[in-house]
Amino acid sequence: MSIRALIPAFILSLSALSVCAPAFAQDSPEKAKAVRDEDGKYFDADGNPTYKIENGTVDWYTFSGYRRYHSDCHVCHGQDGTGSSYAPALVNSLKTMDYGTFLSIVAEGRKNVGGGKENVMPAFGDNKNVYCYMDDIYIYLRARADGAAPRGRPPKHEDKSQAAKDAEASCMGS
Questions:
Q1: Model pTM?
Q2: Which of residues 173 and 119 earns the better pLDDT score?
Q3: Which domain holds residue 167?
Q4: pLDDT at 18 over 50
Q5: CA–CA separation, 50 vs 149, rounded Å?
Q6: At residue 160, what are phi and psi to the nearest 5 degrees?
Q7: Bias regions of kind Basic and acidic residues — which residues (predicted)?
Q8: What is the pLDDT at residue 159?
Q9: Distance separating alpha carbons of residues 106 and 77, to the nearest angstrom
Q10: Can you tell me the distance from the alpha carbon of 44 to that of 93, in angstroms, rounded to the nearest whole number?
Q11: Residue 102 and residue 109: Cα distance in Å, rounded?
């Protein structure tokens, strides 16, 4: 079964999870601390993907997230997640948004209406350049929200692991 076929069920399960579980405040870099490494991808104590930055070198997924964010997301959400007059600053949103909610909003989109204003986040669940890299984008924005990653292109990054290469090839269909 292809990854593309699994995404709707995965997103549906995450949506249910985010409704049942309260959102957590990502209140400090300590909460996001990497405690587990799976082939170059880091996870926090709750099992959520996270960043690892040491001596100015970011992990591959943070770097990939920077690249993917700036290929699709920055048009609305601003350079480095700082927001614009069109869409909110994701460096602020990720301080209170849990992983499941992030995935659900990116995949399914969201519409906010109120105060005479309508904001629409389009669904990116069919855009391979986004859905194949949702974890990467989340990791990058999480690092930005925690203040661990400065603005701009990370100057140094870890090499891309074979696991990352394999996941990309599988998702992108190459």
A1: 0.82
A2: 173
A3: 3-172
A4: no
A5: 12
A6: -75, 125
A7: 155-168
A8: 95
A9: 12
A10: 19
A11: 10
Distance CA 168, CA 149 (A): 24
Residue 77 CB neighbours (<10 A): 22
Strand 57-58, strand 156-157: pairing = parallel
Count up the domains in the chain and report the number. Answer: 1
Cα distance between residue 174 and residue 164, in whole Å: 13
Instruction: Centre a 10 Å sphere on the Cβ of residue 72 and count the other Cβ atoms it contains.
Output: 16
Alpha carbon distance 107, 27 (integer Å): 25
The first and second tokens of residue 167, run together, are: 């996941």
Residue 98 buriedness (CB in 10 A; 0-12 / 13-18 / 19+):
buried
Average pLDDT over residues 45-72: 94
Buried b (16+ CB within 10 A) or exposed e, 25-56: ebeebebbebeeeeebbbebeeebbbbbbeee
**Residue 96 · residue 23 · CB < 8 Å:** yes
The Cα 66–Cα 73 span in angstroms is 10
d(CA 145, CA 137): 12
What distance in Å separates the CA atoms of residue 80 and residue 82, rounded to the nearest whole number? 6
